[in-house]
Amino acid sequence: MRKEIIGDCTLYLYDCHSMLADIPDNSAIVSDPPYGIAFQRGVGGQGKHSVRNRKAIVGDAHPFDPAIWLSFPEVVLWGANHYAQRLPHGRWLAWDKLAGVPEYDDFSDVEFAWIKGRGKDRIFSHLWKGICKASEKGGKERWHPTQKPVALMERCLKEVAGSPIVDPYMGSGTTGVACAKAGRQFIGIEIDEGYFNIACERIRKAYAQPDMFVERPAPPQQLSMLGAAE
Q: I need a surface site. Which of 90, 187, 205, 206 has the fewest CB within 10 A?
């Protein structure tokens, strides 16, 4: 096991299933777990991703069983439509990845998160598909095949009030970045050392440059008397 403490974020390089008993009972689970994409797609689940790390995701070759996380008081799990039959009644957050842009590829235009408890289903619209992104446009290639935008995970944090926020399948650390920006306590667990190192780097940068994921406004343009920008 390797442990890193960065601000209010505590990160573990370890198998989350092996440290389940060490996760505080009052934790809010917010995660995008491996849910069998490779298993469902066949052919190794390999697709065209503009990511720096193309290796297989640990655990993604088998269907996901969410049972061990359902006892926590607050839970937000992405990709839940792929294992909905294993979930109790809850509510849904639908992420509209096109945000009004016409569909243009063969990949899904929407992703779904299951949220524990009763309430209204919600939609979050945020363009983030292929090279088209409404945020983090100045960043480098994506670090993880299933990486989510920080804006989406910030939206997820609004669904939970508990502390700490725990992401047992931390990946490249987007949930941790959102927590760092929001001043929320975070525990992240990742089994893959490469992704763990990326998460540590991104979270450090989030503390050092809290506005690094905020789009800078376009510089003002002077308008001519005819109304056209000069």
A: 205
| Whole-number Cα distances in Å, 225 to 56, 198, 218, 219, 230 | 57, 50, 21, 19, 10
- Total residue count of the chain as it appears in this document: 230
221, part of any domain: no
User: Where in the sequence is the domain holding 27, given as residue range(s)?
Assistant: 2-208
What is the value of pTM for the model shown? 0.81
- Work out how many domains the chain is built from and give that number: 1
Question: What CATH number does residue 200 fall under?
Answer: 3.40.50.150
Residue 97 φ/ψ, nearest 5 degrees: -80, -15
> Helices H, strands E: what count in the chain?
4, 11
